[in-house]
Amino acid sequence: MPSLIQSPRFLLSHCLSPLPPNARAAFCGRLSHRSAAAALSSDAQTIASNQSSSYAPLPSPPSSEILSMRESLLSRRRTAAEIADEYLDRLRRTEPQIRSFLHVSETVMREAEEVDRLVESGAELGPLAGVLIGVKDNICTVDMPSTGGSRILEGYRPAFDATAVRRLKEAGAIVIGKTNLDEFGMGSTTEGSGFQVTANPWDVSRVPGGSSGGSAAAVSARQCAVSLGSDTGGSVRQPASFCGVVGLKPTYGRISRFGLMSYASSLDVIGCFGSSVTDAAIILNAVAGHDRFDATSSMHEVPDYASCLISIDQFDSKPLKGLRIGMITETMGNGVDMGVVSSIKAAALHLEELGAVLTEVSLPSFSLGLPAYYILASSEASSNLSRYDGVRYGNQVAADELISLYGDSRANGFGPEVKMRILMGTYALSAGYYEAYYKRAQQVRTLVRKSFKDALEKNNILISPAAPSPAFRIGEKVNDPLAMYAGDIMTVNVNLAGVPALVVPCGFVEGGIAGLPVGLQMIGTSFSEMEFPRKVPTLVELCLQTAISNLRYIGDVGEVDLYLLKDILPHCNIDQLTHIENSTQGRDLSPVTDALWKRFYEQQFGVESANTVIKRMKQKKVVFKWRQLFEAKTKEREEAQNKMGEKLKQRYAEAQAKKQSCQIQICSKIPPSAGKRSYWGGGGPSSMSNAKGNLMKKAKLEYLNSHEVKVHALMRRNASQRNSLSQPSLPCSTRQNNFLQSNSASSSKNGKPVARK
Fold first, then answer.
1. Residues 408, 396: Cα–Cα separation, whole Å
2. Half-sphere exposure of residue 317, counting CA atoms within 13 Å on the CB side?
3. With contact defined as beta carbons under 8 Å apart, do 296 and 258 qualify?
4. Average pLDDT for residues 585-599, to the nearest whole number?
5. What segments bear the compositional bias annotation Polar residues (predicted)?
6. Exposed e or buried b for every residue in 321-342, given b needs 16+ CB within 10 A?
7. CA distances, 490 to each of 31, 227, 519, 686, 746 (Å)
8. DSSP secondary structure letter of residue 272
9. How far is CA 376 from CA 187, 365, 614, in A?
């Protein structure tokens, strides 16, 4: 009998009919545009529309469950109590088959009613007000048991909340319960739990993945809106792929580990599940940040993740143009299910259609990550789990001697998988084997980190399957631990490198009643969950970069929410900002854009000029928009530059005319060629200084052949001819004697002859 909650988000509310082959083929690899990381989602409306008409399909889920709840509360269409009752009712109906929760809170309705009272009083609500959240049972909660999925901590109630849980509660969230997991996070199927085995909502005969299988199954079955998990080697991403939900593993140190039961301290991170990337971003925004109780938590500033998300549905062109995506070659070879490979390649093809540039990337150290991970994780686990001895922590077994008390308490409390990993870690850390195993594993970890760094310098993101196969049947690999360990090969390298990764549904493969989901894993640089370094796109922030680089293709910018524009506009240039304001339809964006125009004014004309404008406006008691001031100042500067240019052109023309006139005058003093020697007193130009001679030669060569000079010389010749005709002719000897006398007079000073040089 099929599960009542099998794939409830995508298919039918109760009984399910098989997916038609043509529908599966049409949908497999087909991607929606809701995911910010690569605009990927799998709402599977195509599947629902192809179901038998005898069943009433569920309405397609909203892009964000959290935002939908908040809008319902603020509009008074629904109350928090009604929403909580709906989730609890569904949990009661589906839990006998799914078994995703180890404990359900008894205070859910009371907390929901408190939220309703805040709504009625008009008080400000937190960003997660009324949102029901599941928490993995290895994350401490003060008002509920926290067992880590182990019998050794059965009934344990911490005296404090984990930092992540405390921040969720401060944001108004309601913890609906604690979800199942593999004991202390050691496992990939949730079959290693000390209490129960969780089933996959898509096919209750299959595993949901692990170790956070309970959290993933709860979100997939809509038993809660979102949930927290932990990721040591893929414990968030692999269950997200198996259950068809979004799973985010942040950068190591992005979220405080205080209150998380340690498995491998250098690898553990708290992650989150959601039905959309928006939900995952909102949860990350609530829990991320430095914590004084965790020395490994990062001091990096936490941006507002959720406000940067924009649906790619708003674009009608190629929004991922220029994005460089690297497909890891080692993840598409032998040992990977062909259906998974087909879905990943179909997703990659869709990204290319959206404008991305796809290349194949080889990571030579990729295959070395799996053995290195299990050596490091087991070694750290053997140290961390030593505290559970029945004295400091854990249920105690009565014994006559202390050694027997330790041994019996741990033997009865730990499961077989935990015992095996403790033994493996103790062996790797023992004298004589430390350098052979643990030290070499650390060296491999360095190689893995370097290979990811090199690959991400050439590509914006890397993609790969989240798991080599879809969800397999319960009990299929219980007796083959090596095969189960090999299933982590796609995810463990990310933990070794400490970089973030996001998994989104990208298609389906054959199996089960309605097909089995496949997840696409996207890997980015450290702290790139939403931080925008302005050089490369980030995992959850790709749509923001898409909006900035493709503003010309937005249809009606005026329809974009104002709080989204606040994050887009600071990254725009003047042309893009002008385009946004001009493309609005009767909407005034000056509350957002005025500060940006002021910034542009200060950049172009200086801060002193801006302060002067402000001072003058205060004196005149008038207020102008900074865009008007910017445009007026720009126009004034352009006019001043044009006037200055005209003046310079006029001065240049006058200088050229004056220079030409001077040169013409110089050239006009040069007699015709026939009389040169007589004019220069017999010696010619060679008797002058070289500089003067060169000047005269250059002037003659440049201007003697010009039209003005020729005309001027012709006029002088004509005038001299008229003068010679009008004067009485003198004897030739007289003219010659006068010339010789004047010449000889010029050749002496004070009656003394001067030697010619």
1. 8
2. 12
3. no
4. 71
5. 718-750
6. eebbbbbbebbbeeebbebbbe
7. 21, 23, 11, 93, 107
8. E
9. 15, 16, 62
Strand ranges inside 553-709, DSSP E: none
Q: Which two tokens stand for residue 353?
A: 């259609």
Assigned token pair, 299:
């001091």
What DSSP state is assigned to residue 164? Answer: H
Peptide bond into 211 cis (omega under 30): yes
Residue tagged 């750290």 (tokens): 380
The catalytic residues are 136, 211, 235
Q: What is the torsional sign of CA 692, 698, 703, 709?
A: positive
Spatial CA neighbour of 181 closest among 194, 170, 172, 168: 194
> Could you read off the pLDDT of 501-555 as tens digits, one per residue?
999 999 889 887 778 999 999 999 988 765 333 333 333 344 444 444 444 333 3
Tokens of 72: 């319902």
Neighbours of 67 (CB within 10 A): 17
Segment holding 753, helix H or strand E: strand 752-753
- Which residue did the predictor score with more confidence, 15 or 297? 297
pTM: 0.65
Contact 519, 467 (CB under 8 A): yes
How does pLDDT run across 647-668, given as a tens digit for each residue?
A: 888 888 888 888 777 777 766 6
Is the predicted pLDDT of residue 222 greater than 50, yes or no? yes
Joined together, the tokens standing for residue 308 give 């940067």
